[in-house]
Amino acid sequence: MTAAGTRQPVSVGHPLRLGSATHLFVMGLAAEARVKPVVLDAMHRMGLHDVEATSQRVMEALAEGRRVWMTSDLHFGHANILTYAARHHRDVAQMNADLLAMLRKQVGPDDLLVIAGDLMFGEDPAVLDTLATLAAWVILVVGNHDFDKSGHFRWPWRCFSAVVPFLYWHWAGQNCLVTHLPVPAEGLDVKDVLSTDPRFSNPSQGLAQVVNYHGHLHLQTVPVERPERIVHVNVGYDHLRGMLCL
Length: 246
Fold this sequence. Notes:
By secondary structure, this protein is of the alpha/beta class. The chain contains eight helices and nine strands.
């Protein structure tokens, strides 16, 4: 299942598996030059052992017909984001209140909420308490601002059902990958990707098209370069001015 307006014809090829999803995620890390290496390493290591089980939980929710919400780069408490992303809030206090109201209004108790990184600047008890009681599952796909400059995770684990570096699934004929940093289209060599997973016995068949749900770019989008291989969907709050529901 993909976002409205981004649905593509079901492509012939291999479904996304853990090995190939990890390879694509690492490509996104390698392409980001502005983030400190210690933070990129922390993003890679955070909850890596939980990726498969958490991704399976998302697929189960979709199969059950439950709503899966997705957002990114909420930046609670970040004064500079008001100007940087042209947010139309009076001040940080109003921004925080408006974002919390959006979450409470749209995300139901039986829903899943996926936050694709960069939750907030500075620990805010109101935000943490809301996340802890908001939905059946709250999943944080970590972003660079979820760590301090030394690579230490900033937030209490109690607020989240799972904290992972990325998510992936193959659902309704579509490969989906959730990351904070977008996966670059350039250098996307199918044989290299498939060689990371021994279950692919015929790499020449190719990897079926991947929809990469991502954040990090705020108002920007990734240029369309290889849509037959990868389609980027920016789920950031500043791009959508809201949230995406799968």
